[in-house]
């Protein structure tokens, strides 16, 4: 095995930067009264940044006295000094930098195509500067969406809106919102808003984008055919993101129908049939927004929750939510990384907490497993060993009767339509009675769904990386 001495290498590279006697490039950054020159080595810049690899190609460089001259007036000297140190040493210290400079550094990292640094800065802003981000939200939001690979900060901004969208969508900033940001917002399943409200504000936003419509009434009464055509073109990419089947029939005919001219014919026909004939749409199959079923999970994204909710309601995964369907709240009662992954901890927090939803992420695998039981789990044994490794596997012991339990599995980040469901086939063998297992068979379990999904000591096909349990209550 090779021995690596990275610390000495980084120390030597740092000396090359501070004592750049053999430099071959002078970089001038800043403008007006804030200009500074930096001396560097073009080979290091090319190796560390694909931006410099192209910018310093023989075709583009300018030389004077055999020295490369390079200017970047749009980059602040303080910011470029941090960037340059990172490229030489892979080190960056943001603790004493202002929040505004950290955001400038994010922009510079994107421009110089330093993806590793950009990802670090995004996480730093999210985790260490949440108050500043909130106070400067619009500025941060637009900055994040100007940078195409700034996905973490984009998602954080959109999540912030989704958690409480009302203040944002009723603000003047919403009507001026960039179309890419609006698309990303309406696309999200966790936008906690009534669908008819989303529709109303989409129409208001569309009208604002068309100068000729701003001075007319917003209800379309005095519009001509050309006005509707302009609005249709403006909203064409957004209409398919509206969950029309989540809008009541009365709201549909009061709020949506007057603007039927902007809705593509196939969508309008399917939605109309849904309201008049109760026929499920064939092409518009978006799930309800998960704000109604929000789950504080580190294991799964919002998408699968609507499917799990359908299964709890004994409906097909793709079924459209109806107003008569039960809605649920999922309260986190156990998380392995927080409460320890062992049977004692699980049983202490989850026993007699019915109904319960279990989610399991496995080590070295994209597999995610889960199970739901309306009757919960029971375990009155007291002998546990916290030093075991815990896993999930299958084995037959003693059970509690239950008709409505089910288990499921899917691949992480996979299409939610590919989730696999298994309902109870033998209600007598649905849920393990952990008391009998622990005492009679000397084998403790955290949970057990039939013979197919169990949390147990010592061995198993999959090792648990994270496990979560939620108490499920009707809203």
UniProtKB/TrEMBL annotation:
PROSITE patterns: BTB, TLDC. Signal peptide: none annotated. Residues 23-96 form the BTB domain. Residues 298-473 form the TLDc domain. Gene3D superfamilies: 1.25.40.420, Potassium Channel Kv1.1, Chain A (3.30.710.10). InterPro entries: BACK (IPR011705), BTB-POZ/Galectin-3-binding (IPR051481), BTB/POZ_dom (IPR000210), SKP1/BTB/POZ_sf (IPR011333), TLDc_dom (IPR006571). Pfam families: BACK, BTB, TLD. PANTHER family: BTB DOMAIN-CONTAINING PROTEIN-RELATED, HL07962P-RELATED. This is BTB/POZ domain-containing protein. It comes from Glomus cerebriforme.
């Amino acid at each position: 095995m090779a021995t690596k001495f990275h610390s000495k290498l980084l120390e030597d590279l740092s000396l090359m930067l501070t004592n750049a006697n053999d430099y071959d490039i002078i970089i001038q950054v800043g403008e007006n009264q804030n200009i500074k020159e930096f001396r560097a080595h073009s080979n290091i810049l090319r190796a560390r940044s694909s931006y410099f690899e192209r910018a310093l190609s023989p075709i583009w460089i300018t030389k004077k006295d055999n020295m490369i001259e390079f200017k970047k007036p749009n980059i602040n000297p303080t910011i470029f000094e941090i960037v340059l140190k990172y490229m030489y040493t892979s080190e960056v210290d943001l603790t004493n930098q202002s929040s505004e400079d950290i955001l400038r550094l994010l922009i510079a990292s994107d421009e110089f195509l330093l993806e590793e640094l950009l990802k670090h800065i995004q996480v730093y802003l999210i985790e260490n500067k949440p108050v500043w981000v909130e106070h400067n939200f619009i500025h941060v939001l637009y900055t994040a969406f100007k940078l195409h690979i700034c996905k973490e900060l984009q998602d954080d901004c959109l999540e912030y809106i989704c958690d409480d969208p009302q203040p944002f969508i009723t603000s003047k900033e919403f009507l001026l919102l960039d179309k890419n940001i609006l698309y990303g917002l309406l696309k999200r399943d966790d936008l906690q808003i009534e669908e008819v409200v989303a529709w109303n504000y989409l129409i208001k936003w569309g009208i604002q984008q068309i100068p000729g419509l701003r001075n007319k009434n917003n209800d379309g009464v005095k519009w001509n055919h050309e006005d509707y055509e302009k609005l249709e073109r403006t909203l064409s990419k957004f209409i398919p993101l509206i969950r029309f089947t989540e809008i009541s029939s009365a709201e549909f005919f009061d709020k949506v129908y007057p603007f039927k001219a902007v809705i593509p014919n196939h969508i309008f026909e399917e939605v109309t049939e849904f309201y008049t004939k109760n026929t499920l749409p064939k092409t518009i199959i978006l799930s309800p927004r998960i704000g109604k079923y929000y789950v504080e999970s580190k294991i799964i994204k919002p998408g699968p929750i609507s499917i799990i909710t359908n299964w709890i309601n004994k409906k097909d995964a793709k079924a459209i939510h109806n107003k008569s369907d039960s809605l649920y709240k999922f309260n986190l009662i156990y998380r392995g990384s927080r409460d320890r992954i062992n049977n004692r901890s699980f049983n202490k927090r989850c026993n007699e907490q019915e109904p319960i939803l279990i989610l399991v992420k496995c080590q070295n695998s994209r597999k995610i497993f889960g199970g739901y039981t309306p009757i919960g789990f029971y375990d009155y044994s007291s002998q546990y060993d916290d030093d075991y490794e815990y896993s999930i596997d299958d084995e037959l012991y003693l059970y509690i009767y239950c008709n409505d339990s089910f288990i499921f599995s899917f691949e992480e980040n996979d299409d939610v339509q590919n989730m696999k469901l298994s309902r109870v086939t033998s209600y007598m063998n649905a849920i393990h009675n952990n008391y009998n297992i622990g005492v009679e068979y000397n084998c403790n379990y955290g949970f057990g769904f039939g013979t197919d999904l169990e949390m147990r000591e010592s061995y198993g096909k999959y090792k648990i990386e994270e496990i979560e349990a939620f108490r499920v209550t009707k809203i």
